[in-house]
Specification:
The chain is of the alpha+beta class. It folds into two domains: about 190 residues, 3-Layer(aba) Sandwich (Collagenase (Catalytic Domain)); about 90 residues, Quinohemoprotein amine dehydrogenase alpha subunit, domain 2 (Lipocalin, Beta Barrel). It contains six helices and 13 strands. An eight-stranded antiparallel sheet has the order 9-8-7-6-13-12-11-10, with no helix packed on it. It has a five-stranded mixed sheet with strand order 2-1-3-5-4, covered by helices on one side. Strand 12 and strand 13 form a beta hairpin. Helix 3 packs across helix 4. The longest helix has 19 residues. The chain is elongated. Bound molecules: zinc ion (ZN). The site of zinc ion (ZN) has 7 residues, from helix 4.
């Protein structure tokens, strides 16, 4: 996951794509075992857990070089991250000292090469040289040596985007064709927001990596995983609504309301004919719940699996469907 060179684009693939595909296939087969009968009738949509999202909101950062070299550049990186990903979410990057042998979190090395990360999100947890930044630009992207602060900050924002689990926007299956040609690095497995030309994660952004400024959709995507600022442990708290479209034609859409408080989620379902029922389940810190079964009567129930960002449902009489929840 490299940064685009200023005025040029780097292209190469990493083998991590295979790991992500493998994980996706395992997830899919696990689901197939649970709901094989119903799945045959399901629309062709899948909700996949983005496994590289950090569960903690406090991510340690350290510098591989123990010396006090590049003090100014290090501060620019810290400032850039603070003014973007931290400012708009509940994330906090802490430490910023020299790495020890067993240091966890993000471990940053500095080299005069194309800045990059060795994976996405938690794949970097404790990984030596997991992120590489460039502070001189004497060899790579030399035009940056005359506008050092701008380049260091712009690239830091992009690479920290990878470090919190975001893939390149141009890699998305729904990116425009001319943009997909620049596809690079690991693919994501979950589309959170619509395709975003203005993303700091998009090589096709007319401004180089968005000039290091998060777009409104970058912020929306960020907050769906890491909450709004200063809402630690409450990122999913509140009321959510979703509506279900069943795969069986003729079945009407139901509405479901979820109330989340801490790790408890209460689901309320209302049918068009006015019947209501509630059910409880637990929510993990990624907003994922399993088997929230809402029963209206002995022969009418739906089971919600998935998360607040979307999920599958199975109904005893109407097959299965897909929910997308919206926070109220
Ligand atoms: Zn990148």
């Amino acid at each position: 996951m490299v940064s685009a060179e200023k005025g040029e684009v780097m292209k190469f693939l990493t083998p991590r794509l295979h790991n992500i595909l493998l994980g996706f296939i395992l997830l899919l087969s696990a689901f197939l075992t649970i709901a094989k009968e119903n799945l045959d009738k399901c629309p062709d949509q899948i909700y996949a857990l983005k496994s590289s999202i950090w569960k903690t909101l406090e991510i340690p950062v350290c510098w591989e070089d123990q010396s006090q070299k590049f003090v100014k550049q290090r501060q620019w990186v810290q400032d850039a991250v603070k003014g973007t990903w931290e400012k708009n979410s509940s994330l906090h990057f802490v430490g910023w000292n020299g790495c020890q042998a067993g240091s966890k979190g993000l471990r940053i090395d500095v080299q005069d090469v194309g800045p990059h990360t060795e994976g996405l999100g938690t794949e970097l947890d404790g990984l030596k040289n997991g992120m590489v930044l460039n502070f001189t630009f004497l060899k790579w992207s030399q035009s940056c040596s005359s506008e050092l602060e701008y380049c260091v900050k712009d690239i830091a924002v992009h690479e920290f985007g990878h470090a919190i689990g975001f893939s390149h926007e141009q890699n998305r299956p729904d990116a425009p064709k001319r943009c997909k040609m620049d596809s690079q690095g690991s693919d994501g497995d979950l589309l959170v927001t619509p395709y975003d030309l203005k993303s700091v994660m998009n090589y096709c952004n007319p401004k180089w990596q968005g000039d290091g400024t998060l777009s409104p959709l970058d912020i929306k995507g960020l907050q769906s995983f890491y909450g709004k600022p200063d809402s630690t442990n409450t990122r999913f708290d509140g009321n959510w609504v979703g509506s279900l479209t069943y795969s069986d034609p003729g079945c009407v859409s139901d509405s479901v309301k979820l109330t989340v408080s801490g790790d408890a989620v209460i689901g309320t379902m209302t049918t068009p004919d006015g019947r209501t029922a509630t059910a409880k389940s637990n929510l993990d810190n990624l907003g994922i719940f399993s088997n929230l079964t809402i029963k209206l009567s002995n022969d009418d129930s739906i089971t919600l699996k998935g998360g607040l960002l979307g999920g599958r449902t199975i109904s005893t009489d109407c097959g299965c469907g897909f929910y997308k929840f919206k926070k109220l």
